[in-house]
Amino acid sequence: MSENGGPPATRDVVDTVLAFARTLRHAGVAASPDRVEAMLEAVAHLDVLDPSAVYWSGRLTLCASPDDLDRYDAAFAAFFGGEAPRLRTPAGPERQRVVQSAPIESTGGSEDGGEPADLATRASGDEVLRHRDVGALTVAERDQLRRLFALLIPAAPMRPSRRRRPGPHGSVHPARTVRRALHDGGEVTRLMHHRARPRPRRVVLLIDVSGSMSPYADALLRFAHAAVRARPASTEVFTIGTRLTRVTRELRLRDPDKALAASGGAIPDWSGGTRLGEVLKAFLDRWGQRGTARGAVVVLCSDGWERGGTELLGEQMARLQRLAHAVVWVNPHKGRAGYEPLTGGMQAALPSIDHFVAGHSLAAFEQLAGVIDRA
User: Fold this and answer.
1) Which domain range does residue 304 map to?
2) Of 199, 220, 247, which one is at a domain's C-terminal end?
3) Residues 203, 156: contact at Cβ < 8 Å?
4) How far apart are CA 301 and CA 235, in angstroms?
5) What's the CA gap between 100 and 95, in Å, rounded?
6) Confidence class of residue 93 from pLDDT cuts 50, 70 and 90?
7) Is the domain of 172 the same as that of 227?
8) Can you give the pTM of this predicted structure?
9) How far apart are CA 126 and CA 89, in angstroms?
10) What residues does 165 pair with on adjacent strands?
11) Does 5 reside within a domain?
């Protein structure tokens, strides 16, 4: 109920459910449109200020299989800021009863039993936070953003492989067709087909950890951790500044905070200078030319400040473009109104960039994940 005793605005509830469904999709739960409509119909008959009612209405309508349940619980806790309600194990043969969850938002009610915050208020706060510049967040907002980053699961781009598998369409498989004909008495009754089996395309992230990028380094490494967690065998992560450091191994730790702490201990040039041309050349000489960048989607995250010569950066970017399947440059400043890539490093790199995107907010990182997936 709202403060004036009437029901919450229908539009706010719809926006809340749609935002929650989008969070679920990032967490790996399909949350198809028909299931979202089913949840909307369910909450229309429930008290939306009751966390338990909201939890079970979503769980019973949005989850399609047992594999979705853990992801749903994590998404619910991160989105609404409360513990997911659980079934209490009964002491006797009594039927199980639903346990009330923690309040959706502790700031919405008073200690003497006041009403909890409106569901839409909490959701709208998360929506605003998704679009906030991560370099200007408070400590509390950064903690909240970390929970949302933990739900981000970037999809890996796919590529066709030489290996083929049976399929209803594709080129004719002569050997299988002949075997099928022999099985049918020597007459060809059906053509057997096979097609290329898709495989994940390698993704390489080069993250600038120089002083000018320090407000965004934490968010960039959390995005890298999400990418490594989703595809550990086909994702490589390096940090760049005054030297090149491979941090893929550290980011394979399951816990995001432990992974970032291990990465920070492995990076010797954190918040130092920037020598993009020299470091990119070192990457290509040692890793890229030998196969790491060949046919991969290479994502370079930097603001483009270059302390060395820009000619070397331009040469190495052209070299990288010849090796890679696609080159994506992520610049946090691109999300600001009126931004123009006027720095020498950006001017040198732009001719060799396939996709130039922003990287200043969670919403921008979600769009980046889509760019990588479609590259």
Assistant:
1) 201-374
2) 199
3) yes
4) 15
5) 16
6) very low
7) no
8) 0.66
9) 33
10) 195
11) no
